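REQUEST FORM: STRUCTURE PREDICTION
Request ID: SP-0412
Submitted by: Lab K.M.
Chain count: 1
Length (residues): 184
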Amino acid sequence: MVHVPEDKIVECGMLCHLAQRDWMMRDILDLMLSDSDNTATNFLIDFIGFAKMAAWFEAEFAHIHLGRYLMEVTDRENYLSAETALELLERLLADPSPFGQVCRKALFYQESVNKLLQDLPEGCSYSKTGELEDTEHDAARIFAGDSYYDICFMSHYTGLEEREQILLAQNAVGKLAYQDLTWK
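STATUS: Completed
RESULT:
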């Protein structure tokens, strides 16, 4: 059990809406992955240690940088490449440990399915999505039987019309991948 202090609650996600502040660590991890909960993410960064996590990312991955907490207003920035996002997804899905099991379950039950998974049947994917006011990202493993595609779609837009077009493109990519996997 861990305690999430009231002064650490940030916008976006379930934790900012719920009164409960004592959680199992596995639930915090699940909320970070399945709900993109910013408070859960920041809590885990603090739990591990910001500098330690940033150094681990730098040592393990070529194109990821932890520069700030989520929802923090600063001139520092976080960044991640599509290649690294897929590498992280693949590592989580291949991890046989209890940690990996929690991650797989959270990624399987992703709350946001309006991007790559929009027109797909339930139960055929693992995914992690993210968005900001000008960004729509989605990384997913879409599968049918033992066959799968790992896809990462990262985008930056200006304006609602452009965002709508990006979401439609993400929907089309996911649908095309699933159709290809189920083609008989």
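NOTES: The radius of gyration is 17 Å.
Reviewed by: T.R.
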